[in-house]
């Protein structure tokens, strides 16, 4: 969930800020799944239901439509013959957005994923996740080894990327517009606030709720085949590479000339992921 701080927006960043994730005419309408604690989780479905399923989970302050449909992932996966299900994580997109930090934990995010798979009667799926979604994928692979057969984990380092985020400063900014001096905290807020439909209070609650919780641990990696992919211009690239090296069936792909935010738009990333997801070995 660490974002590269840049003053100049890439073309994709500009698009995200301009359209705010509003669904196109071709986007499916969300179907809601109930979480174990009573929240509505928005889901989207594409492709033939009798094909192998890939479940997609987006990153912080994004959504299923922004992270996966508008970047070409859904198009390429369905053209390759996959059945695709994507969800808006709690606090995001069309899903419920609780303001209580206790609603946000890695266990809850994995439970939401499991609820979606159970509702759609998907016994075994392949997985694609980016940033926060990749962290969910790592934990799901550990907790649900019989349900996740292989996973693409984009933009994921080890450790906790949220320790520097200043929750009190963020809450003051939301309450009365107080200046935020910390560069990282300000960048998170500006990025999230620039996308219409985001609820800053919910997103700050997510940061607070997840901080210090379950994190990817290279000493305890999942056993499934995992493809780690991180941009060459992303500050976490070496940490991600090291996490892949610690994973028994891990591979690493460096996404050329991409930072943390614009990596999902990379065709080379999508091509590497498709090759990996097609592999049955």
Mind explaining what this structure looks like?
With 281 residues, the chain is an alpha/beta fold. It has one domain: 3-Layer(aba) Sandwich (Rossmann fold), CATH 3.40.50. Helix content is 36%, strand content 16%. The chain is built from 10 helices and 8 strands. Strands 1-2-4-3-5-6-7-8 form an 8-stranded mixed beta sheet, with helices on both faces. Strand 1 (31-34) and strand 2 (40-46) form a beta hairpin. The longest helix is centred in the middle third of the chain and has 14 residues, at 106-119. The protein starts with 10 loop residues before the first helix and ends with a helix.
Radius of gyration: 17 Å
Oligomer class: single chain
Mean pLDDT: 90
Name the strands of the widest sheet in spatial order: 1-2-4-3-5-6-7-8
Overview in brief:
The chain has 281 residues and is α/β, with parallel strands linked by helices. Helices cover 36% and strands 16% of the residues. The chain has a single domain (11-159, 218-278), classed as Alpha/Beta hydrolase fold, catalytic domain (Rossmann fold, 3-Layer(aba) Sandwich).
């Amino acid at each position: 969930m660490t974002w590269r701080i840049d003053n100049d927006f890439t073309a994709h960043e500009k698009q995200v800020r301009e359209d705010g994730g509003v669904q196109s005419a071709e986007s499916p309408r969300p179907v809601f799944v109930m979480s174990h604690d009573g929240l509505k989780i928005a889901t989207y479905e594409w492709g033939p239901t009798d094909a192998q399923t890939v479940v997609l989970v987006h990153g912080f302050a994004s959504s299923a439509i922004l992270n996966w449909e508008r970047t070409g992932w859904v198009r390429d996966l369905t053209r390759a013959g996959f059945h695709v299900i994507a969800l808006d994580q709690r606090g995001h997109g069309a899903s419920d957005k609780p303001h209580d930090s206790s609603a946000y934990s890695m266990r809850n995010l994995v439970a939401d994923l499991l609820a979606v798979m159970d509702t759609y009667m998907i016994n075994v799926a392949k997985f694609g996740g980016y940033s926060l979604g990749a962290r969910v994928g790592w934990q799901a692979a550990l907790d649900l080894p019989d349900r996740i057969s292989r996973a693409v984990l984009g933009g994921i380092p080890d450790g906790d990327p949220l320790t520097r985020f200043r929750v009190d400063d963020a809450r003051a900014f939301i309450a009365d517009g107080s200046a935020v001096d910390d560069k990282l905290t300000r960048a998170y807020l500006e990025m999230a606030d620039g996308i219409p439909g985001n609820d800053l209070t919910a997103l700050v609650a997510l940061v607070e709720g997840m901080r210090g919780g379950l994190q990817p641990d290279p000493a305890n990696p999942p056993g499934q085949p995992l493809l780690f992919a991180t941009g060459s211009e992303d500050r976490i690239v070496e940490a991600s590479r090291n996490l892949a090296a610690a994973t028994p069936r891990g591979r690493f792909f460096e996404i050329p000339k991409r930072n943390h935010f614009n990596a999902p738009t990379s065709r080379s990333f999508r091509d590497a992921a498709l090759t990996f997801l097609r592999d049955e070995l």
